[in-house]
Amino acid sequence: MTLKMHEIRELIRLIDESSIDEFELEKDGEKVAIKKAKAEVITQQVTAPAPFVPQAAPQAVAPAQVAETALPAASTPAEESTDSNLHKIVSPMVGTFYRASSPDADPYVKEGDTINSNTVVCIVEAMKLMNELEAEVSGTIEKVLVENGQLVEYGQPLFLVKPS
Hints:
- The protein is of the alpha+beta class and 164 residues long.
- The protein is 18% helix and 34% strand.
- The chain has a four-stranded antiparallel beta sheet, with no helix packed on it. Strands 8-7-5-10 form a four-stranded antiparallel beta sheet, with no helix packed on it.
- The chain starts with a helix and ends with a strand.
């Protein structure tokens, strides 16, 4: 199994778009490991295949526990009607959310700030690239939905804006 560079790139893209944090593939003495948190790809040659060692089966999780963790908290009808009047600025990619250009700098925006469509509101870091995100709407920042340094998913709401 010799993976070509375009195949590795495709693997990275697919994993980046999924909720998988870590992926390993080992075949014919070659190993590819991709870990999302550090955005690195490790390829190494193995001289001899490792012997198969069976591992213990994972413990079952009670269905009630799965339901509790898988379902988001229900919002009240009042919250839903308030949110419907607000514009959501969403993440265009999977990455790490930063409110400022550096740890000691002031945040780009905070709740109550008035913005226009080309105001930079945050940075989303993806694969060591810092991507400035513009508001694309004019209005007032009503709520910041994400903590600084938090991992965000594609399409995840970051800010609520009251359009002007």
